[in-house]
Design a protein that fits this description.
The chain is mainly beta. The chain has one helix and six strands, in the order αββββββ.
Length: 133
């Protein structure tokens, strides 16, 4: 926030305005980035917690984060899986596949861990921005 305020002041100063705008002579070079990282969190697994209604145990805690940045743009994907079973219902017969079908409007917010507010938000109310397969 402090740097944004300094930038606002700099844009008002005629001698410093050149720093805040791109011209034909300027060059922007952005590195290509491509990663797909999977992480298991064994320190979370086995932990118990409770809600007002039930007691739970975390069986699996796993996350995958993928990010691509190239001349075509940027893509980010994060998938978190945590499988939790009630202590009373911990038999294998209670494990059922989950169906997570995003066929209703949904909200995507991206936020840095150290930031108070999201830096990206998308309300997906239709298929206009989605890629057909």
């Amino acid at each position: 926030m402090k740097l944004s305020e300094i930038g606002k002041d700099g844009r008002k100063n005629e001698k410093l305005q050149w720093k805040y705008y791109l011209s034909e002579d300027d060059e922007v070079v952005i590195p290509k980035i491509n990663f797909n990282i999977e992480t298991n969190y064994p320190t979370l697994e086995g932990h118990k917690f409770q809600t007002e209604e039930r007691n739970y145990t975390i069986i699996t805690a796993w996350q995958r984060t993928a990010f691509i940045l190239n001349e075509k743009g940027a893509e980010i994907e994060s998938l978190v899986i945590s499988m939790v079973l009630s202590e009373e219902e911990n038999g294998e017969e209670n494990l059922r596949p989950k169906k997570m079908i995003f066929d209703k409007p949904f909200l995507i917010l991206l936020k840095r861990t150290y930031s108070q507010n999201p830096y990206f938000g998308l309300w997906a109310a239709n298929t206009e921005l989605m890629i057909k397969e």
